[in-house]
Structure to design on (148 residues):
């Protein structure tokens, strides 16, 4: 299934968060599936992604970056930060950066967008380091989620 990079759709829950210095990307793919199914599929990571996430958790542990929260509504490792009829917002705020992943389904197209707001040098450095992995993981997650 072809997944393409696209602008952030209008009316998403992320729209009100985005500032001029924030990172935002968005990927889309055609699918008849609902938003709950897309989020569940996208957050079922293959073993290679789970390995990268474990390395990330170990690497940032000394810096106090939050790991997995065990409380509340969640999909995979991500807490639910908001919901709308056709959208689920995942993520949390941290002292180094805030992040959200929005999954939105409209007109047989699923959109997965990421928003990050770094708060300090560590947050900006962390973002630069993980961006190549992030893009690879997001494209892969969307391709798996929208696959027939």
């Amino acid at each position: 299934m072809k997944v393409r990079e696209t602008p952030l759709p209008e009316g998403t829950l992320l729209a009100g968060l985005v500032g001029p210095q924030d990172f935002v990307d968005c990927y889309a793919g055609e699918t008849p599936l609902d938003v709950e199914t897309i989020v569940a599929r996208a957050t079922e990571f293959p073993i290679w992604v789970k390995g990268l996430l474990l390395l990330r958790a170990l690497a940032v542990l000394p810096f106090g970056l939050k790991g997995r929260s065990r409380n509340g509504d969640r999909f995979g490792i991500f807490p639910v930060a908001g919901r709308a009829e056709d959208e689920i917002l995942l993520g949390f705020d941290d002292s180094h950066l805030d992040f959200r992943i929005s999954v939105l389904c409209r007109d047989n197209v699923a959109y997965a967008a990421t928003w990050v707001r770094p708060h300090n040098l560590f947050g900006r450095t962390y973002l630069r380091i993980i961006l190549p992995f992030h893009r690879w993981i997001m494209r892969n997650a969307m391709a798996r989620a929208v696959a027939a």
